[in-house]
Amino acid sequence: MYRRSTPGNRPGQRTLSKRTALSALGGLITTVLLATAQSAGAAPAPVTPSDRDGMSRAFTRAAAEFEVPRDLLVAVGYGETHLDGHRGEPSQANGYGVMHLVSNPKSHTLEKAAELTGERSSELREDTAANIRGGAAVLRAYADGLGLDSGERRSIDEWYPVVARYGGAADIRTARLYADTVYTLLAQGIDADVPGGESVTVRPRAVEPERGAYAATGSDQRSAALSPDYPDAAWVPANSANYAAGRSASISSVVVHVTQGSYAGTISWFQNPSSQVSSHYVVRSSDGAITQMVRDSDTAYHARSANSSSLGIEHEGFINDPSWFTDSMYRSSAALTRYLCDRYGIPKDRAHIVGHAEVPGNDHTDPGPNWNWNYYMQLVGGSGGGGGSVQLSFPSYNTLRSGSTGAQVTAAQTLLNQQGHNVGTADGVFGTRTTSAVTSFQTARGLPADGVVGARTWTALLAAGTTSEVREGSTGAVVERLQRALTAALGRTVSIDGQFGPNTAQAVRDYQSGRGLTVDGIAGPATWSALQAGR
Questions:
Q1: Cα 420 from chain centroid?
Q2: What tens digit of pLDDT does each residue of 40-56 get?
Q3: Distances (CA, A) of 69 to 31, 132, 144, 151, 316
Q4: 425 C-beta neighbours (distance < 10 Å), count
Q5: CA-based, 20 to 30 A from 94: which of 17, 100, 109, 399?
Q6: What pTM was estimated for this model as a whole?
Q7: CA–CA separation, 77 and 48 (whole Å)
Q8: Cross-strand partners of 191
């Protein structure tokens, strides 16, 4: 059974008691049992405010109203969002709510749902029960359009072409991938914890979907291409409007993204010429399957300033829901990243394997606080980017507080231990002992003792140590320490390479000017003192 737990930070939170494998272009779901049919249930009934407080009830009532199998409705929602409406915030494809009702130039299921249900678009975006009702209405409309009669509607297996259409993909292989995912969920079962302490379940069942026009043919199977650049990936090209042929710079980094949507939905979005976005690879949550969509030698539109010099890897899911980040996904993605680093000579460290949020000039926040960088980098097999086996160098330094996890927490813990403020084992988990150590360090440095590692505390931690004067032409570990501290203090990336060149000198001058120090571009006693005080 497919299990969605409440949010946590460890990989592999969801487990499968049985695994039905599908290829990235859609496999066959096989069974030796007959599929059980599900009746649509009671007569139509309107949704009232009193019904809007339970997701299970909302699914049951919407299924009955529109004569859509209840378990199918749940599986479609789970495949899209893990039953998380994300507070009405849009996905990458501008889809909303548990049922991912979409409003973009190529897909208008949100508007269709409003027309069919009489619900306002704002309600469909923000109210879970209304959103589920809207999804059921769209599915029923598609079923009517395909000619499903009342008897066929009672059989889940007959709904395969309807589900394939709901996914919104223009490419038949991607539509098949979307529908296969839903039917795999039905075969495996679902047990999802949702807000309010409620659990939404679907019992495992035997399925034999009637694929109709979506059935794979011999020519389909012969044309199912493998990735030209990574042997373990499938190849589904993005629309040519969403990337540029060739590159203007050599490949020097890997950028980690989170899709803010489903695997099949993301592939479909990158095939949509109006999206104007793409990435080189997309990784599926459930089993780590990978699809390549842009050749490594071409420029995907994924990270603005880093497009020309980076490779982008999208990971299925949403940044605020760690249940998407499975162990299978971490391991598969890390193997891909390791392969790309080896192939293109990219250092396996956090200065060159970065999150979208860490790329200068970007306003995205992925992969977010639930992405386990420490575990991921262990799987990649790279170094931490400074400070021995612990990574201290980052393109930017995030604010850390109780509950934070990951490589930056490990770095802060390591620095606190070095300064005599004991956190115990640097395990990457910001707990009560780390909070106490941060507060102790802040008090010792005359900083506000709030137990939060913000810019000032980061600056003081990173600058701690000897105060040797360094200037343009200096090299070594002390320059790296200076560059880290300046990155935190200035809130912008200062290249951390141990080489005191013109850029580092300018960063020192900028820091000195902003703190009322003598502006000479030399890190002497006064500049070090200010940095170590967290100014």
A1: 36
A2: 233 333 433 333 459 99
A3: 20, 13, 14, 12, 26
A4: 10
A5: 399
A6: 0.60
A7: 21
A8: 3, 201
What is the Cα–Cα distance from 265 to 175, expressed in whole angstroms? Answer: 9
Percent of the chain with pLDDT over 90: 62
What is the DSSP secondary-structure string of 422-455? Answer: --SS--SB--HHHHHHHHHHHHHHT---SS-B-H
Interatomic CA distance for residues 275 and 116, integer angstroms: 27
d(CA 39, CA 98): 23
Residue partners of 270: CB distance under 8 A and separation at least 6: 238, 239, 242, 277, 278, 279, 282, 293
Give the residues across from 258 on adjacent strands.
Answer: 315
Q: Which residue has the tokens 């002992």?
A: 433
Cβ-contact 442, 454 below 8 angstroms:
no
400: how many CB neighbours lie within 10 A of its CB?
25
| Residue type, position 269, single letter | W
Please, which residues bridge with residue 499 across strands?
A: 475
Question: Is 452's pLDDT higher than 70?
Answer: yes
427 pLDDT tier (thresholds 50, 70, 90): confident
Q: In this structure, how many other beta carbons lie within 10 angstroms of the beta carbon of residue 120? A: 12
